[in-house]
Write a structure and sequence with these properties.
Maf protein; seven-stranded mixed beta sheet; 198 residues; alpha/beta; 7 helices
Length: 198
């Protein structure tokens, strides 16, 4: 099997694929996510469509430089009450985001698009609904202080695979989608197309 090209610098996505027996080579796409997101928001695009468009932009960019390759582009968007939250810019920004979301529900939309020989052949957007507990200001401030090095690169200012799990009272959806990769659907597609053995 020729390796999948992962159009992402995300270490957790690479690890998830590797641990599930999918060899992949990493080739970060380096697209201007903010420009794409801003343009789509100005057109009234939904968070789901934005996640899908960002994943496709990454796959398309890498596929254009990798003739004949199978390329996987991914992106994750956090939808909180109709607003898309980005990665926090500072510890203070992380505290503001977490305090706004506490005691409420938000959604993570994890998109994946696969290109084969520079053409899109498959796409999926997984949705997870997460319910935050009503954590105190002090706990949130301490959490951000203890975890800033890790969460500054995370949408929503938390990582569920770390201490961030303590922020939640309930999660409805696939754990892999929370991690930013609709892994089960990707594995199913790769098996159906014969890339992975049955």
């Amino acid at each position: 099997m020729s390796p999948l090209v992962l159009a992402s610098a995300s270490e957790i996505r690479r690890q998830l694929l590797d641990r599930s027996g999918v060899p992949c080579r990493v080739q970060p796409a380096r697209v201007d996510e903010d420009a794409i997101k801003d343009a789509l928001l100005s057109e009234g695009a939904s968070p789901r469509d934005i996640a899908d468009a960002l994943a496709e932009a990454k796959a398309r960019k890498v596929a254009s430089k990798e003739p004949g390759a199978l390329v996987l582009g991914c992106d994750q968007v956090l939808d909180f009450e109709g607003t898309i939250l980005s990665k926090p810019e500072s510890p203070e920004d992380a505290q503001i985001q977490l305090k706004a979301m506490r005691g409420k529900r938000h959604m993570l939309l994890s998109a994946a698009v696969i290109y084969d020989d520079a053409k899109p052949v498959w796409r999926h957007v997984g949705v997870v609904r997460l319910y935050m507990r009503d954590a105190s200001d002090g706990w949130i401030d301490d959490y951000v202080s203890r975890n800033w090095d890790s969460i500054q690169h995370a949408v929503g200012a938390y990582k569920l695979e770390e201490e961030g799990v303590r922020l939640f009272s309930r999660i409805d959806g696939d754990h892999f989608n929370v991690m930013g990769l609709p892994l089960l659907e990707i594995l199913s597609y790769l098996t159906l197309r014969g890339t992975l053995p049955r």
